[in-house]
Design brief:
single chain; alpha/beta; seven-stranded parallel sheet; 18% strand; binds adenosine-5'-diphosphate
């Protein structure tokens, strides 16, 4: 070891890592030493609070420094199970330590040797007992750290293994060439450590402040890199020219609509038309940001109409097959009334039909193609594409937008429809590569969804309410924060002691509570409602399975759908009238608002019930915002105030975030608006001086930006 560059060295080249462990590390996204250094702890255990054996209390979680008093005795039980026991002591008292199924203990615990044990204390009569404690040998000259990192694991790995391997990488830090990505002046201005120190602080903090400083360093770096990516895309766009279209009167289009456009819709359409017919001749990259139900489809349809009127083709890309079908059903007849030929391409399209559609798009016989993003970017070649529209844009990262623009010979104008209302103060920083049109009012006559916040004590009443709604012919969504019951190593899940949570130092107590999982909760609901059809849906299912379940729900065949936030994306099931969100405190407000937008889409009186046992003031306050407001923009501003900008980052999706991965490069953790603004300003300076980051000093920055943005593209799926 030591010969190859630490950051590029394959994980397999680290001591103790064979094929199997390497495969487990891959699952964590760790392929190289560099990835290993970036596999940040998800929490820290505070083992620094050491108690004497005569001070410990029943149920207390703490450390004890004690010597081994007896040789471990192992008792074999039936079916290859066993337990081992031995006595430990300090100068104040004794305790019994028990381990299960660990037959090697005699080799570890020698009489007279001292260890630090950490676990929940049980007091049985007068006897102190410790079961399966974490333990570390106490050695002269090797002080034990107070804070022990807890890493995300995959099966086949233990905390000790991961921590040990990270330690190996840390030992090499000083010799390894590790570039500082933050501009030096900015780093110093923010009082941040060097990148090497930041690595040491985040993995091996001496204090809670160290951990926080390390986290802050990498968060700042992520914000800076993200902003660099945005600034670069903006720069590139400034230099791109686009098709200039002829104007047509908007009324020619609106005449075919069953309703009059709202003022906001009309303003958005005019902004888009100005871009498309613009004298500037620049390529359009515009986002329409509008609340759920604000009528984005009609705005997109107008843009498509103008494009086809000009003799160009248009694409409408959406994240799921079911959404594609819904758009097709809505838009095909409208377009047909103008003689516009529309086709639909999804995973369900047969191979033969696919071939025909592709041929039609290539020959220009098809004017408008609606489909999923993956399908449309694959090998579908247009004759003369004038406009690419992506709907529910928050599912697509910046990288997708870039790849889109690259695809065709003559680049199409780009229109993205975002269902997440974005606070004005944020729009420019997060979507600086796009112009933004705000669709900030709703079509008339939209019904208000009544929102309630309840706790577990309402469960029975809630179930009665579900029954009442389904018996009346309605349908119910239930959203859970997790996919499956976690099957992680108990060591990892072990909720002992004062865990300093890496993610949210403030909301720790809420985090520690167990989150409901869609799969498990669907079982519970099936049992509670044997008379109804219950199904579950989550992001880890195959696309075809997901589409199938969604279709059956849309058809009314399934009455109760238990899901993760995958249903957040704008599927329209007008018959659904009750949205229940479990562990509501674990969602961002904008996400809750999005979820609430899934009901109240038909004529049925609709309700949203947020179930939460959260006790912190901040959690209660946030849920109260939901009860009192129905405007996505108001809620987004509140969300920004209460949680910071992290939830608004246009990268990845909810399911990536909910599994607690670090894929997002920490941007999703940002709770500090000023920091984001400053990082964006620093990125702006870097790009102003070197627009495509081609100078040698920016080489590593350019690489990191590319890596960040491709990673996010992967995380999307
Ligand atoms: P979203 O912005 O969530 O995509 P949609 O485009 O799906 O919203 O529109 C939601 C509903 O509102 C649709 O049924 C649509 O027909 C209707 N709608 C859109 N614009 C108007 C309008 N100006 N007046 C009345 N209804 C409208
Ligand atoms: Mg929509």
């Amino acid at each position: 070891m030591g010969e190859s560059n630490l950051t590029e060295r394959p994980i397999k080249a680290f001591p103790g890592i064979g094929e199997k462990r390497a495969a487990a590390f891959y699952k964590l996204g760790v392929k190289t030493g560099g990835d290993l250094l970036r596999h940040f702890p998800r929490a820290y255990q505070n083992r620094g609070a050491v108690k004497k054996l005569n001070e410990v209390r029943d149920g207390e979680i703490c450390s004890v420094i004690a010597s081994v008093g007896t040789v471990p005795k192992t008792v074999m039980l039936r079916s290859h199970k066993s337990f081992s026991k031995f006595v430990i002591f300090d100068e104040t008292g004794k305790a019994t330590v028990t381990f299960f199924n660990q037959n090697y203990l005699r080799d570890v615990f020698h009489v007279g040797e001292e260890f630090r044990f950490f676990t929940k204390i049980r007091i049985n009569g007068t006897k102190v007992e410790m079961t399966s404690p974490q333990f570390e040998p106490v050695r002269m000259g090797h002080p034990l750290p107070d804070y022990v990192p807890i890493y995300g694991l995959a099966s086949g790995l233990t905390q000790k293994m991961v921590s040990y391997t990270v330690g190996l990488a840390l030992n090499e830090l000083d010799e390894a060439p590790i570039p500082e990505l933050l501009p030096e002046a900015f780093r110093q201005e923010k009082g941040l450590p060097t990148v090497r120190d930041a690595y040491r602080m985040i993995h091996r903090p001496d204090t809670a402040e160290d951990a926080d400083t390390g986290k802050r360093y990498f968060m700042t770096e992520a914000l800076y890199l993200f902003s660099l990516g945005i600034a670069m895309t903006r720069e590139t766009r400034r230099r791109k020219t686009g098709i200039v279209m002829k104007p047509f009167p908007l009324t020619d289009f609106t005449r075919a609509l069953p309703f009059a456009l709202t003022e906001a819709q009309e303003r958005c359409v005019r902004e888009i038309f100005a871009d498309l017919t613009g004298g500037s001749g620049l390529l359009m990259s515009r986002m329409v940001s509008g609340d759920v139900g604000s009528g984005k489809t009609a705005v997109a349809a107008a843009a498509i109409w103008l494009t086809v009127k000009n003799g160009y083709q248009a694409e409408l890309m959406v994240p799921t097959g079911i959404l594609a079908s819904q758009h097709y059903e809505d838009l095909e007849p409208l377009f047909a009334s103008f003689g516009i030929r529309t086709a639909l391409l999804t995973g369900a399209t047969t191979a033969g039909e696919k071939r025909k559609i592709k041929a039609g798009f290539l020959s220009g016989e098809i004017d408008v193609l609606i489909g999923t993003h993956a399908l449309l970017t694959e090998d579908v070649i247009p004759k003369r594409l004038g406009l690419a529209v992506t709907d529910e844009q928050h599912r697509f990262g910046v990288a997708q937008r870039a790849s889109l623009a690259e695809r065709a010979g003559e680049p199409p104008h780009l229109l993205v429809m975002s269902a997440t209302p974005i606070p004005r103060t944020l729009a420019l920083t997060l979507y600086g590569d796009l112009d933004v049109s705000l669709l900030d009012s709703m079509p008339p006559g939209r019904q208000k969804v009544d929102t309630f916040v309840v706790d577990e004590s309402y469960r029975e009443r809630l179930n009665a309410f579900i029954r009442k709604n389904v018996n009346a012919g309605g349908q119910v969504y239930i959203v859970c924060p997790a996919v499956e019951e976690t099957e992680e190593d108990p060591d990892e899940l072990w909720q002992g002691g004062e865990i300093v949570d890496f993610f949210t130092f403030a909301d720790m107590t809420e985090k520690k509570k167990k989150k409901k999982s869609a799969v498990r909760f669907a079982e519970e609901m099936s049992a509670a409602f044997p008379e109804f059809r219950v199904a579950y849906l989550h992001g880890k299912m195959k696309q075809s399975e997901k589409d199938d379940i969604m279709r059956r729900f849309a058809d009314g065949e399934i009455q109760i759908l238990v899901s993760t936030t995958v249903i957040e994306v704008g599927v329209n099931v007008p018959n659904a009238c009750l949205m229940i969100v479990e562990n509501a405190e674990s969602f961002g407000l904008s996400q809750l608002h999005q979820l609430r937008g899934r009901v109240g889409r038909g004529t049925r009186k609709s309700y949203c019930v947020l179930v939460s046992d959260a006790e912190t003031e901040s959690a209660k306050k946030r849920l109260d915002v939901m009860r009192s407001s129905n405007s996505g923009f108001v809620i987004a501003e509140e969300d920004l105030k209460l949680r910071g900008p992290g939830d608004f980052f246009p990268v990845g999706d909810g399911s990536a975030r909910q599994s607690g991965e670090f894929r997002m490069g920490l941007t999703s953790l940002c709770d500090d608006m000023d920091l984001l603004r400053e990082a964006a300003a620093a990125a702006g300076e870097t790009v102003a001086a070197d627009p495509d980051l081609s100078s040698p000093e920016n080489r590593f920055r350019a690489e990191a930006v590319r890596a960040l943005f491709t990673l996010n593209a992967e995380a999307m799926n």
